[in-house]
């Protein structure tokens, strides 16, 4: 018969790959004063069954590591407040005695201002640690049916909320309205797949993982979302769009020891999509989604910040994305995320027939929005002019838009690209960009001059 501290035993058997009844019991706690009674009872049973002569009892005790007897103060006023009923002190005394809880009434300076008990729980009731535990025991013995049923009342005050804060729920609703589904995946992921998706950050390894495919903490949400996407595709889903918001975890490289302060936690919004652009229908096309479908959905989320022009999506490279279909997302020159097509080598290892598009962005960047400002509408008509510009293939529409915006005055209200042409009549190394420019003035009608 023995006693071991639960905190010293917890997890030790699993670390050796063992699962024993002793570990199961000692991890959950046993009576730390019952060893002598247990060995005497076991000896008594052996003598009755098989006979023999008992030997001496050998006791080894480490007094420093034995639990201390807990003395808990129980207030009558607290019982009434928590249970909502006044229970007489005689009934409380009776209940404590029936439970085997040693108790005495606390008397300070021989004057009792409030009925307070000092209660010591027996050693086999190691679950009794605070006053609320004692009140729970009293309510259980007193009878839950005898407790009054009352609707709790409390005064609530509205907490201040800044108009410049964009809630995550609003972002979720925006994506759901565009046909996406929210997923919730584990923060523990497979080290092999994550190593393919993120080669720049060192993952945090778990000391005691549940399984080999949950051995590290995620540095990117793409790892869990790709597993969920594969799960859905294997069940004949031909249109999958999943997004998730959550924390990603990383650490500085070459750490000799790791503490909570060394872990960097970043909240991100990520999504994966593949399959048909529209649900199967006699009137819908069978085209699959492409880069610009995902880019449009992401831009609708960025527009919630109130300053969509602050975000710039430009061609860039990422180790997990296709070199020709990947882009970085920047805000005022700071990189905040990536979007693109999954790298063909990773795509081939996953054995998926549809192209997979992904995006990931830091949510702290978009949850702070600017307030909309009112400007009166012009009483004068708008003027639209469409122009076509032939440029080199290397020149992007973003460069052309920036050039026009820098040269135009305040009368330019809208600038949109509505066509890109490559083909007959144009040099193979050039392309034609068609843009629509809308002008208006607040004080006069615009003319061709």
Automatic annotation (TrEMBL):
Quaternary structure, from the entry: Tetramer of two alpha and two beta subunits.
GO biological process, one term: phenylalanyl-tRNA aminoacylation
Cofactor needs: Mg(2+)
Subcellular location, principal: cytoplasm
Gene3D superfamilies attached to this UniProt entry: 3.30.56.10, Bira Bifunctional Protein, Domain 2, Ferrodoxin-fold anticodon-binding domain, Phenylalanyl-trna Synthetase, Chain B, domain 3
Assigned protein family: Belongs to the phenylalanyl-tRNA synthetase beta subunit family. Type 1 subfamily.
Matches recorded under PANTHER family: PHENYLALANINE--TRNA LIGASE BETA SUBUNIT, PHENYLALANYL-TRNA SYNTHETASE BETA CHAIN AND LEUCINE-RICH REPEAT-CONTAINING PROTEIN 47
Location of the FDX-ACB domain: 378-449
CDD domains xrefs: PheRS_beta_core
Protein name: Phenylalanine--tRNA ligase beta subunit
InterPro entries reported for this sequence: aa-tRNA-synth_II/BPL/LPL (IPR045864), B3/B4_tRNA-bd (IPR005146), DNA-bd_dom_put_sf (IPR009061), Fdx_antiC-bd (IPR005121), Fdx_antiC-bd_sf (IPR036690), Phe-tRNA-ligase_IIc_bsu (IPR045060), Phe-tRNA_synthase-like_B3/B4 (IPR020825), PheRS_beta_core (IPR041616)
Organism of provenance: marine metagenome
EC number of the protein: 6.1.1.20
Keywords, comma-separated and alphabetical: Aminoacyl-tRNA synthetase, ATP-binding, Cytoplasm, Ligase, Magnesium, Metal-binding, Nucleotide-binding, Protein biosynthesis, RNA-binding, tRNA-binding
Limits of the B5 domain: 67-149
Pfam families documented for this protein: B3_4, B5, FDX-ACB, tRNA_synthFbeta
GO cellular component assignments: phenylalanine-tRNA ligase complex
Segments forming a coiled coil: none
Gene Ontology molecular-function annotations: ATP binding; magnesium ion binding; phenylalanine-tRNA ligase activity; tRNA binding
Matches recorded under SMART domains: B5, FDX-ACB
Locations listed in the record: Cytoplasm
Catalytic activity, as annotated: tRNA(Phe) + L-phenylalanine + ATP = L-phenylalanyl-tRNA(Phe) + AMP + diphosphate + H(+)
């Amino acid at each position: 018969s023995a006693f071991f501290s639960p905190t010293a035993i917890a997890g030790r058997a699993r670390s050796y790959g063992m699962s024993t009844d002793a570990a199961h019991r000692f991890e959950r706690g046993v009576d730390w004063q019952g060893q002598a009674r247990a060995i005497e009872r076991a000896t008594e049973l052996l003598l009755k069954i098989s006979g023999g002569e008992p030997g001496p009892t050998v006791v080894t005790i480490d007094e420093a590591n034995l639990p201390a007897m807990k003395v808990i103060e129980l207030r009558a006023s607290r019982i009434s407040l928590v249970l909502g009923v006044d229970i007489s002190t005689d009934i409380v005394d009776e209940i404590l005695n029936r439970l085997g809880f040693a108790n005495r009434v606390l008397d300070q300076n021989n004057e009792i201002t409030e009925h307070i008990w000092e209660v010591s729980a027996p050693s086999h009731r190691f679950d009794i640690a605070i006053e609320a535990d004692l009140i729970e025991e009293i309510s259980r013995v007193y009878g839950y049916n005898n407790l009054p049923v009352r609707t709790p009342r409390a005064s609530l005050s509205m907490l201040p909320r800044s108009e410049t804060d964009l809630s995550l729920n609003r972002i979720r609703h925006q994506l759901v309205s565009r046909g996406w589904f929210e997923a919730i995946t584990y923060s523990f992921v497979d080290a092999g797949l994550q190593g393919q998706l993120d080669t720049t950050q060192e993952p945090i390894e778990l000391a005691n993982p549940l399984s080999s495919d949950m051995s590290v903490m995620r540095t990117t949400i793409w790892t869990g979302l790709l597993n969920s996407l594969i799960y859905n595709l294997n069940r004949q889903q031909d249109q999958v769009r999943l997004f998730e918001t959550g924390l990603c975890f990383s650490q500085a490289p070459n750490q000799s020891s790791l503490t909570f302060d060394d872990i960097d936690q970043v909240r991100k919004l990520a999504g994966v999509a593949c399959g048909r652009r529209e649900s199967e229908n006699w009137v819908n096309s069978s085209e699959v989604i492409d880069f610009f479908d995902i880019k449009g959905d992401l831009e609708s989320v960025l527009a919630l910040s109130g300053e969509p022009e602050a975000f710039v999506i430009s061609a860039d490279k990422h180790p997990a994305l296709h070199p020709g279909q990947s882009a970085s997302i920047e805000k005022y020159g700071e990189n905040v995320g990536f979007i693109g097509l999954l790298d063909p080598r990773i795509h081939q290892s996953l054995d998926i027939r549809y192209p997979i598009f992904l995006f990931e962005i830091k949510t702290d960047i978009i949850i702070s929005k600017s307030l909309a400002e009112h400007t009166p509408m012009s009483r004068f008509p708008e003027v639209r002019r469409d122009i076509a510009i032939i440029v080199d293939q290397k020149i992007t529409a973003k460069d052309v838009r920036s050039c026009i915006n820098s040269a135009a005055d305040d009368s330019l209200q809208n600038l949109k690209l509505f066509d890109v042409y490559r083909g007959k009549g144009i040099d193979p190394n050039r392309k034609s960009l068609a843009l629509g420019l809308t002008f208006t003035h607040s004080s006069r009608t615009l003319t061709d001059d």
